[in-house]
Design a protein that fits this description.
With 359 residues, the protein is α+β, with helices and mostly antiparallel strands. The chain has nine helices and 21 strands. A hairpin with a 2-residue loop joins strand 3 and strand 4.
Length: 359
């Protein structure tokens, strides 16, 4: 019982992951995850294969065909885009990539050759990826060495939605990895708009993320009848917590909270949003990351406890033994409109999956 009492009362140790404005220098090795976009479509302002779509607003609608088949796009070169500015809905210019061949090889190996059943996108004739892989919206993790600082001198890449790429640094000695490969925090950078949405700043981790408690210290909810009995999108006042000394193996419990995968807890930041500390903002965890991504699904889930107002982080709660039940309930609650490919669309959830769990 000593370990159990410790687990229930334990708050996650401080995750002091603060992003600070980076001062990139030539020779620095950096890693960044984002949408890959060709310079031609950036500078024209709209996608070549979808002229009604603003390039920097909806890169997820950029077909692999346009990105990887079309000569004028290929010849213009590529960059990895920054985050979307929530104020104007436009992505930040990111980092230019000086090795076109590596982008082409990785992108074509990832993209599907299948025709779009909805006929919204042209098929990628040079792709060789699995049939169920994406046909549009190529994302990748890029590792490279800074060879040029750009007009922003390694700090600023331009304004959100900018059509010029001259402000963006250039990377050489490139590695192009799957977007689900997380960057090493020591070299990870992001590009995010400032508070006013005026310019995009290159940011890096300010402090090292402290390791979270071992998951073995967290009690497990089990039983053949354990189930996610309800989902909720609102936070309600919780009753006073039960005295943990009264909790015993075999007791039935009921708890409401955010559902989080063990992988994102252990890494300290969200896999799909590396600048966000997992236990500070589980409300920003996408249903896609939680329910689509194998490394997250296979790691198992837990329902989080309450947020500690003094630290701003959620307590670890209970591990959930039945992954299939969590996945089925979450997918039924989620929306397919915001990137959750396995969600059924019966619900409206896109981020921050909460549920009431009984077991």
């Amino acid at each position: 019982m000593k370990a159990l009492r410790h687990a229930l009362l334990l708050l996650l140790s401080t995750h002091a992951t603060l992003t600070v404005t980076a001062d990139l220098m030539i020779g620095d090795q950096v890693c960044m995850t984002g949408f890959i976009m060709d310079t031609f479509c950036i500078e024209r302002g709209t996608l070549l294969d979808a002229p009604s779509v603003t390039t920097m607003k909806n890169p997820e609608l950029h077909s692999y065909h346009c990105l990887l088949d079309v000569g004028v796009c290929i010849d213009s070169g590529y960059q990895v885009l920054g985050s979307k500015d929530p104020m104007n809905g436009l992505h930040c210019p990111g980092l230019r990539i000086d090795d076109t061949d590596k982008v082409l090889a990785a992108g074509r190996a990832h993209g599907t050759t299948m025709d779009d059943p909805n006929q919204a996108f042209f098929a990628c004739s040079t792709c060789s990826g699995p049939d169920d892989n994406p046909i549009a919206g190529y994302k990748a993790t890029i590792i490279g060495t800074v060879s040029e600082l750009g007009d922003g001198m390694g700090r600023v890449t331009g304004a959100p939605g900018a059509k010029s790429v001259t402000g963006t640094p250039v990377l050489t000695n490139i590695q192009v990895l799957d977007s689900m490969v997380a960057c090493d925090p020591t070299i990870m950078v992001t590009v995010e708009a400032d508070a006013g949405g005026n310019e995009c700043l290159i940011r890096s981790a300010g402090d090292v993320v402290a390791p979270p408690p071992m998951m073995d210290d967290i009690p497990t909810v089990t039983d053949a009848t354990a189930a996610v009995v309800a989902t909720t999108t609102t936070t309600v006042a919780a009753p006073p917590p039960a005295d943990v000394s009264d909790l015993m193996v075999g007791d039935e419990i009921c708890i409401t909270g955010f559902i989080m995968d063990t992988f994102c807890i252990n890494r300290g930041t969200l896999l799909d949003a590396p600048s966000i500390v997992t236990l500070q903002n589980p409300d920003l965890h996408s249903y896609h990351c939680l329910l689509d991504v194998p490394v997250c699904v296979e790691s198992g889930y837990q329902v989080l406890g309450e947020k500690d107002p003094s630290m701003g982080e959620y307590c670890l709660g209970y591990r959930l033994e039945e992954t299939d039940t969590v996945v089925a309930s979450g997918r039924a609650a989620g929306s397919v409109e915001d990137g959750c490919t396995t969600c059924t669309g019966n619900g409206m959830g896109t981020k921050g999956y909460r549920a009431t769990v009984k077991g």
